[in-house]
Fold:
Amino acid sequence: MISYTPTQIIFADDEDRSRPPLILLATATTDEIEAAAAAYFGEAATKAPPDYVEFYSALLGSNTYGSVIGQPKTADLAFAMAIFVSAIQDCMAGRESQPAMQGAIWLLLSQVTLTEAHAAELVTLMNTHHLNNIYLLAPPNERQ
Structure:
């Protein structure tokens, strides 16, 4: 937990009440606060979780999605899109399966052709909604 007083920022461990708190002056900079939080709670605890709902909403309004929808229709593309939608819906409903979502991303991207601009847009969406630390757009052996 992080609490604030007019003069202090106090970091306390809710799971280990015997752990002494970390106290910063209220004048600490954002960088100092983020560094203190990472040091006190651990790096993983300070990372934002993926926001699947906002990611999917932004994806549906993106040029990349428009391009995918405009590509020639095939049974394989329809299957890949159904798998992707199923996986993202599970994630949005709190039933996240990272291996299933990763597989769905790779399957869908194997069925479409993206321009560099669309790939950059997709990377930006993933970064913005905190999926970039979890998912890869290409399997490790295919990345350049």
Remarks:
- Residues 2-46 form one domain.
- The two ends are 41 Å apart (CA to CA).
